[in-house]
Specification:
Blueprint: H1 4-13, E1 15-18, H2 24-40, E2 51-53, E3 64-68, H3 75-82, H4 84-94, E4 98-106, E5 116-119, E6 132-138, E7 149-151, E8 164-165, E9 168-169, E10 186-188, E11 195-199, E12 204-206, E13 217-224, H5 242-251, E14 253-255, H6 282-288
Antiparallel strand pairs: 1-11, 2-3, 3-4, 4-13, 4-14, 5-12, 6-11, 6-13, 7-10, 7-12, 8-9
């Protein structure tokens, strides 16, 4: 469980970092399954519904930016999320009824793996309230050279910055925005098995990976179950009838139950429109949408 001090820190800064959050057995199983998936990507020649390929990817040198929806690829990813180690950490922040929005495993290839430009997750998938957060589990040691997550404290209490360029949603802020101050950023590094939790409105990003090891962080985006998606967030449920939607909501329940009511909060909402040419991952959104890099 989180301590009172850790809960207060999360509410004040919009993020926290916790060491040794997983058991050695959980960490080993996650590492083994992830290594197997990366090996399988060697036979893939273009990005698909599972793998987002980085530049220079080849059979002999698999390079990924992301494994998509890992919780659907192997039971261990779902088991870890629903374990007491994780669910007990997020209950004090989201309440007893919690749903998974989505999952991703950002694998930043060594020697130049792509940056994730500065952004707020809320810009991608606004909901009826902002009790949403991302849990990031480090599957390998993460240091300053490997492109760690960086976050700016207090930004979860402020406005949603513009994430568009020339009228197109690009999934990143303009580094010239006067409200962006990278000098205030905190760098979140740690040993394998450590995890970060950041609020959906916290401004964050990560530089390219300049180390000789892949930077593997497993992200679970978790939601208070009475937060219902609007605009971009609805894309997770497009094409479903009412029964399929309801079943999916329950299937994604991490703990508690799925209420029928939506809780409405007075939170700023900006729609992730007009859509970029390629919306298939944040890397493709930022590239095809013409995001200006803060890391050059």
């Amino acid at each position: 469980m989180l301590s009172a001090a850790q809960i207060a820190q999360y509410k004040e800064n919009g993020f926290i970092l916790l060491e040794d959050a997983l058991s050695p057995e959980q960490l080993t199983r996650l590492q083994q399954v992830t290594a197997s998936l990366i090996s399988q990507s060697a036979n893939v020649t273009e990005s698909n519904e599972i793998f987002d390929l980085d530049e220079g990817h080849s059979k002999d040198n698999p390079r990924l930016t992301r494994i998509k929806l890992p919780h659907t690829l192997d039971p261990i990813y779902w088991e870890v999320l629903r374990s007491e180690q994780i669910s007990n950490l997020i209950r004090p922040l989201l309440g007893n009824n919690i749903r998974l929005h989505t999952s991703k495993l950002n694998t930043k290839a060594p020697d130049g793996g792509m940056a994730v430009e500065w952004h707020q997750d809320w810009a991608f998938y606004p909901h009826t309230n902002d009790d949403l957060l991302a849990v990031g589990i480090m599957l390998e040691d993460v240091n300053e050279d490997s492109g760690p997550l960086m976050a700016i404290p207090g930004t979860h209490k402020g406005p949603i910055l513009d994430h568009s360029r020339d009228g197109v949603f690009c999934g990143a802020i303009d580094p010239a925005d006067p409200l962006f101050d990278p000098t205030k950023a905190h760098t979140l590094t740690g040993k394998a098995g450590s995890l970060s939790i950041h609020h959906v409105r916290t401004l964050h990003g990560s530089a390219p990976n300049h180390s000789n090891r892949a930077r593997k962080i497993l992200f679970y985006e978790c939601i208070s179950a009475d937060a219902w998606p609007i605009a971009g967030g609805v894309s997770n449920y497009n094409g479903m009838n009412q029964q399929e939607l309801w079943d999916t909501m329950w299937d994604r329940t991490i703990c508690g139950e799925q209420p029928r009511h939506a809780r409405l909060s007075n939170v700023p909402v900006s729609m992730p429109l007009a859509p970029p040419p390629d919306p298939t991952s944040i890397f493709k959104v930022q590239k095809s949408g013409g995001a200006v890099s803060a890391f050059k």
